[in-house]
Each structure stands twice: as structure tokens, then as C-alpha cells.
Design goal:
The protein is mainly β. The chain contains no helices and ten strands.
């Protein structure tokens, strides 16, 4: 398991999210109430980029069909159909650098 630098803390202020590519994966990094979290960026319903959606608190809503995801865990929060949860990733902050452990 390696650490990959993906952003500076100044790039993702509280309440914001950023799509990054790390180890060939598209990952959404979020600042939720001052803590950083990461999960897959691709919605498992129809393949939309979740970075195009919106985040309210810890819930990320897909812009295409409204699926809602818990940004802290990658688990499906709400959607009419059962769809696969997203992978979540460990985030480490050192100085002003944000790393993902993959």
C-alpha cells in the first residue's frame, strides 16, 4: 500500500470536493467539516462523475439521476434502486499535502 499526493489542502476548502486521478482510478476527495475523505468518483448507477454533482454536509448527490452517497464511507445513502456502494480510501494530511493510501 502506497501513499500518493493528490492535492494541497488549500485546493479543497471546507464543503468542497475535487476529482483526482491516482493509480489509474478517478477518485473524489472531499473536505467535510475540516476532515478529508475520499471515495470513487464514478456513480455505480450510470457512470456519472460525482464531482459534477453537489455536496451537502457529508452527502454527495449525483447530478444525473440523484443517487446520494455518504462521502465519509462511500456507502449508498438514498436511491430508489439497490446499486453497488463505492470504494472509500484512507486520506492522510501531512503539512499542507493531501495523500491517498491505495
Amino acid at each position: 500500500m502506497g501513499k500518493i499526493i493528490v492535492a494541497k489542502t488549500s485546493e479543497i476548502p471546507i464543503g468542497k470536493m475535487k476529482k483526482v486521478t491516482a493509480d489509474g482510478k478517478e477518485i473524489l476527495v472531499m473536505n467535510i467539516e475540516g476532515s478529508y475523505y475520499a471515495m470513487d468518483d464514478t456513480c455505480t448507477h450510470a457512470g456519472a462523475s460525482l464531482a459534477e454533482g453537489k455536496m451537502e454536509g457529508s452527502i454527495v448527490t449525483c447530478d444525473w439521476h440523484g443517487s446520494k452517497w455518504d462521502g465519509k464511507t462511500g456507502k449508498l445513502h438514498a436511491f430508489p434502486a439497490k446499486i453497488k456502494d463505492l470504494n472509500s480510501y484512507k486520506v492522510v494530511v501531512e503539512s499542507d499535502n493531501i495523500f491517498l493510501e491505495l
